[in-house]
Amino acid sequence: MSTLDQDLASQIERLRAEGCEIIRSEKVSGASRDGRGELEIVLQFLRSGDELVVARLDRLGRDTRDVLNIIHECESRGAFVTVLDPHVTTRGEMGHVILTVLGMVAQMERRFIKERQKDGIERAKASGRYLGGKRRIDRHVVRELLAQGQSVAAAARTLGCSRMQIYRIIGEAPPAV
Fold it and tell me: Can you tell me which residues form the catalytic site (predicted)?
């Protein structure tokens, strides 16, 4: 069981302990709302008097604007938002202020993480230790499929990737012999 799975299990346990009856989860970054289908479903089903409960603010979003937009959407439906860690709710005016500040802190923390990551990559590159990300698609297999007459779309379907990835591989310099 991975750390992410353990974290999810502890969050679910905490939500159940708080009396949450319906729990939805997704394993995507909270950095933006793109691809967050479960969040969209929850927001669509919220009704007046409902409460959206999240274990931590960063589970709701890491961008202040997104967090505030989500809270606004909940409130426009007559629902409340409660964050368990630290325990803050939008049921009172002070909760809005605290959530706004916490959202700003979460966004700032995300920027710091990205800066540290960028600095680490630059140091690793300078010392010759950075090899880049792991390649997910075997370039040789792509070239073989195309040489056999498969279209780019067919090769992408076969490999379970996008056509754009195939086009990028086609555009790469041929391997050194």
Answer: 2
CB atoms within 10 A of CB 62: 21
Residues forming a β-bridge with 56? 85
pLDDT tens digits, one per residue of 95-120: 778 877 877 777 788 788 889 999 98
Radius of gyration over every alpha carbon of the chain, rounded to an integer in angstroms: 22
User: What tokens were used for 64?
Assistant: 């202040």
What 3-state class would DSSP assign to 93? helix
Instruction: Select which of 2, 10, 76, 127 is catalytic.
Output: 2
Which residues lie below 8 Å from residue 155, measured CB to CB, with a gap of 6+?
142, 145, 146, 166
Residue 2 is a catalytic residue: yes
The whole-model pTM stands at 0.56
d(CA 53, CA 65): 19
Give me the CATH code for the 3-126 domain, please.
3.40.50.1390
User: For the chain, percent helix, then strand, then coil, each to nearest 5?
Assistant: 55, 10, 35
